[in-house]
Amino acid sequence: MSDTKAAALDAADELAKCRELFALDESVVYLDGNSLGALPRHVPARMQDVIAREWGQLRIRSWEESGWWTAPERIGDRIAPIVGAASGTTVVGDSTSVNVFKALVAAIRIADATGGPVRDEVLVDATTFPTDGYVAASAARMTGKRMVPYTPGDPIGPRTAAVLVNHVDYRSGRLHDLPGITAAAHEAGALTVWDLCHSAGALPVGLGAHGVDFAVGCTYKYLNGGPGSPAFLYIRPDHQPSFDSPLPGWNSHADPFGMTPDFSPGDGAVRGRVGTPDILSMLTLESALDVWDGVSIEAVRAKSLALTDFFLEHVSLETVTPLAHAERGSQVSLRCADAGAVMKELIARGVVGDFRQPDILRFGFTPLYVGFADAERAAAVLGEVLA
Amino acid sequence: MSDTKAAALDAADELAKCRELFALDESVVYLDGNSLGALPRHVPARMQDVIAREWGQLRIRSWEESGWWTAPERIGDRIAPIVGAASGTTVVGDSTSVNVFKALVAAIRIADATGGPVRDEVLVDATTFPTDGYVAASAARMTGKRMVPYTPGDPIGPRTAAVLVNHVDYRSGRLHDLPGITAAAHEAGALTVWDLCHSAGALPVGLGAHGVDFAVGCTYKYLNGGPGSPAFLYIRPDHQPSFDSPLPGWNSHADPFGMTPDFSPGDGAVRGRVGTPDILSMLTLESALDVWDGVSIEAVRAKSLALTDFFLEHVSLETVTPLAHAERGSQVSLRCADAGAVMKELIARGVVGDFRQPDILRFGFTPLYVGFADAERAAAVLGEVLA
């Protein structure tokens, strides 16, 4: 391996300066940002202020004076440009699982309301992250549909009401064809729900450009929002008036403080809200999003591909992640006998990735804080452990 | 009014020492703890450690090493004794609204599974906090039931599948008869879901003693968990094996990291979990619960009644909250013309309560940090404003 090459690539990297924004030291190569993003250095001070002053001193006044009440839409508007969505389309709150339920039930209801053929099927990608499948099965059961495993790229028929697909497969790192599948679903009269957990903040998504109906995603991976930070929900503008949520909490009401017994949904992405937002987790996310100021997602993508290419050049294990750029997320998954033990040893030697059953070593590359020297070191340590 | 009497009551108050645990100063009488509890002083330091060390330094390791993964059950076990529940019955996570949905759908499914008469009705107290009604309507719609307004205490018939009641009415402060209504529901073959938002941490609930089936509640009022801190869900032990959640996220799976495509629910209260927990909000709550060490809920209740009695003696407006102790929560609601403007003026003069449409001044009494001198001052300022 060539120290020189990594150093040259790092020297030429316009995003290299972002690393200092994060609480990372040289002892660890952190390749698990696709599970939990690193802490931006400025967040603790901001959260001290939120806790001690906004909560501790202003107390209830902060719902208005500190902008707590509108945080879900405001932070949604910070995430929107990162996933290629317009302002007013995205709301933050709840977990990804809960948002999958909202989006899928809403999609099914819209499909049912359009008339035409009976649409009794909900397609879910066969290798989905498990929670999407579990929740989709519940959504299907509660709306009288049938959940059908779907291989992304297969034809979509007239019985399909909605299609739920993970943009990047959590295990293999495969990037699915969002524009193509969305177009095929629309051609068949179905709606799409995209799970962006492994693509938001890692690559351009283009929700608006590709006409995606609904999308959900977590914010604690490539968006560095902190452990279990709230998820986001995207609702295409023309679907907002017909977004019929199965979780119509008071926060989605047109006049929440009117406290009327009848539910009358608000206008816009606010329909995706449910109950009182978890302000501390939410404002941590908001603060963490500051690292995106001046960063283009195209630059992130270019570096991600360069990093994963570079890492792949330096490892010898079977690669599960597709080599074609158009099919690759921002991670590299390698097949390895005894992968659990190997990952344990890697972590002990300061290279942090993770293990996925039964035989996958998973390495996430977060371009904002991972460099080429890190990739080289990770590959070298992996070589040592395997030897 | 008599300064002496308030001073004597404060001097004799065994809970008076708890006030110093909170970030409060003498400039404000804070009677809005039934909306947002005050900040316990020790929480900012703890959260600094969680953010800077557990997230910032340990990162992904904290899911195991810092006990993040088990936080929902662990914190549930901290709340359980406060609401009279056994260990292993209570789990923390999501908002109250989302938990109402889980509990009500699960209750309906259990009722449906028992055979017997067709149970097509879901009763919801007619003056419920709005979100419960909105979410119950959705639960009823998605399970083929009919939502029927219920006046607590009315008979419950054989068509009832489940009864959802707010333990303390958010507006009037009326305490409903939990043991009696629960027994009547069971007599009729129905299940109960109690919303404890305004009773958890304010008075003894006795979930276990009274055989309540399910309960939900928020943690940011009398439990001081911080703005939008996660709610809790109680599942009676014998219902746990049949708890069939409409939101079966991966966190409720028997083997979450097995990542199997089929859903197989875990044992116990873990079935109430859904997605990745919002750790920062959740650990803030956990830290805040430290103020309960050595505090008995019976002592809290005794002081709450004494405080509200004392306040009522000193005010002249029409009282909406019942005078009978057995029917009173931990708040006093007064009817007042121009209540919105009056509350605004009260707040400007350092007495913080809140206003509820159309004509209610609402004053919450949190026995851990409100004293008799506070109650006296609040009454005096109210008198000045009205004069």
Structure write-up:
The structure is a homodimer of 387-residue chains. Chain A is α/β, with parallel strands linked by helices and 387 residues long. The first copy, chain A, folds into two domains: 3-30 and 295-386, Aspartate Aminotransferase, domain 1; 49-292, Type I PLP-dependent aspartate aminotransferase-like (Major domain) (Aspartate Aminotransferase, domain 2), CATH 3.40.640.10. Chain A contains eleven helices and 13 strands. The first copy, chain A, has a seven-stranded mixed beta sheet with strand order 2-8-7-6-5-3-4, with helices on both faces. Chain A has a four-stranded antiparallel beta sheet with strand order 9-10-13-12. In chain A, strands 1-11 form a two-stranded parallel sheet. Chain A is globular. The interface between A and B is large, with 76 and 76 residues.
In percent, how helical is the residue content of chain A? 25-40%
The chain-level structural class of chain A is alpha/beta
Protein chain pair with the most extensive contact, residues per chain = A-B, 76 and 76 residues
- Going across the major beta sheet of chain A, what is the strand order? 2-8-7-6-5-3-4
Could you say what the CATH topology of the largest domain in chain A is called?
Aspartate Aminotransferase, domain 2
Tally of distinct domains of chain A: 2
- CATH architecture classification of the largest domain in chain A: 3-Layer(aba) Sandwich
Distance between the termini of chain A: 16 Å
Oligomer: homodimer
The general outline of chain A is globular
Provide the residue-averaged pLDDT of chain A.
97
Low-confidence parts of chain A: none
> CATH homologous superfamily of the largest domain in chain A?
Type I PLP-dependent aspartate aminotransferase-like (Major domain)
